[in-house]
# Entry
Amino acid sequence: MQGYVYEYILFVVSATVFVVGVVNYFAHKKKIARSEKHIGDYKLDYEEQDT
# Structure
């Protein structure tokens, strides 16, 4: 019986960590997309210098 309690607790903890990670991923993805608008298209300038 005690094993099921640990199993349930660990399942809840892992589900919580997963949900927080997914939310964090999309929040950072949105921040990165917004910051690229302000920075400009620096990648093309950098790639042209290599050739």
